[in-house]
Design goal:
This protein is α+β, with helices and mostly antiparallel strands. It folds into two domains: about 130 residues, no CATH class; about 120 residues, Umud Fragment, subunit A (Ribbon), CATH 2.10.109.10. Helix 1 crosses helix 4, helix 1 runs antiparallel to helix 5 and helix 2 runs antiparallel to helix 3. The N and C termini lie close together (about 5 Å).
């Protein structure tokens, strides 16, 4: 819920800043309805309309190989957005054409300020939209992928768009089932390619067990997302698919039932850390993280290059960017996580 509260707060802040600018413009142009409440109502209706325009444009089935498509869509969306703002002013604020132009031109500096705040403050310290480049967190978070049939339960299996074919038997692909949450060899795989999830990173909350956290690799500076299973001061290992903390098996949350963590990769490589023989002993501000699609994951079990000043398996708190708080898109996978 913290992520939802932050989103609502950011949206309200943007609305208030732009409505204040519109109110000043209405005052200066001597509009008939120049009260702040009218300006705020107009801005809310305008934002709703612009959101609908954005949603419509992103769902137009334009051929991706047709190069003018995105430019025409952007031009059309801009024209509709301007027309919508004019209609809102005409109907709600009862302004003339000259008054409408003067009032909305006064909001241009406000939109610049909002953009700067979103880019420099919100994006760096509060919330950020991101996506994945690999499917190691399937089925919870998805990158480019295919859809197939799970051989265990007959449910929907997610198959990575890119796969190392060297380790796959002929006619089969490694995947993760969204229903039984088991890794499997999928033989019935569709050819359609589905896009990556878009999600919000909450940079305010502290990580908890089972949270999804994002961090950047210290060498490549590439963003990764993993699941927290071990907290500072704990001893962690995996046995028979379960996570053990300080010698006790930790039960999975309801939305993770069926998920098992492997001590081997799909190519046969064994885990280096977090095994019963080599448990991960975490110091202050250190976390042990795993991938949900663990047979394809490269997480704390397999790391060989440590963060400076930490064991190879430890993700330091200082390197964590934030917690995945909300899956935003596609609509059928929208889900509030934190």
């Amino acid at each position: 819920m913290m992520t939802l509260a932050l989103v609502v707060g950011v949206l309200l802040g943007c609305l208030l800043i732009t409505a204040l600018a519109l109110w000043i413009g209405l005052k200066l142009s001597k509009g008939r309805r120049s009260g702040f409440s009218w300006a705020l109502a107009a801005m809310v209706i305008a934002f709703v309309g612009w959101t609908a325009v954005y949603w419509g444009v992103t769902h137009i089935p334009l051929p991706e190989t047709w190069w003018p498509a995105p430019y025409l869509a952007l031009l059309g969306a801009g024209m509709i957005a301007v027309l919508w703002a004019y209609l809102v002013s005409l109907v709600l604020l009862r302004t003339t054409l000259v008054q409408t132009l003067a009032a909305w031109l006064s909001t241009v500096p406000a939109f610049v300020i909002v953009w700067l705040l979103l880019h420099l403050v919100v994006r760096n310290y509060l919330l950020e939209i991101a996506y994945l480049r690999s499917n190691s967190m399937a089925p919870t978070l998805l990158a480019l992928h295919h859809v197939g049939t799970c051989p265990h339960c007959g449910g929907t299996a997610y198959v990575p768009y890119t796969t190392n074919f060297e380790y796959e038997p002929p006619g089969a692909r490694y995947g993760m089932c969204k229903d039984c949450r088991k890794s499997c060899l999928v033989r019935e795989v569709g050819s359609a390619i589905f896009r990556s999830d878009r999600f919000l990173i909450n940079k305010v909350v502290a990580p908890r067990r089972w949270d999804l956290v994002t961090y950047r690799d210290p060498l490549r500076q590439v963003r990764f997302t993993k699941r927290v299973v071990g907290l500072p001061g704990e001893e962690v290992y995996i046995n028979e698919g379960k996570v053990f903390v300080n010698g006790e098996a930790v039960p999975l949350p309801a939305d993770m039932q069926g998920l098992e963590f492997s001590l081997h990769q799909f190519d046969g490589r064994p885990a280096l850390w977090g095994t019963p023989e080599s448990p991960a002993v975490l110091g202050p501000n250190e976390y042990f993280v795993l991938d949900d699609f663990s047979i394809r994951g490269h997480d704390s079990r397999m790391w060989t290059t440590p963060f400076p000043g930490h064991p190879p398996y430890a993700l330091p708190r200082s390197s964590i960017e934030g917690v995945v708080g909300w899956i935003l898109w596609p609509e059928d996978r929208m889900r509030l996580l934190r």
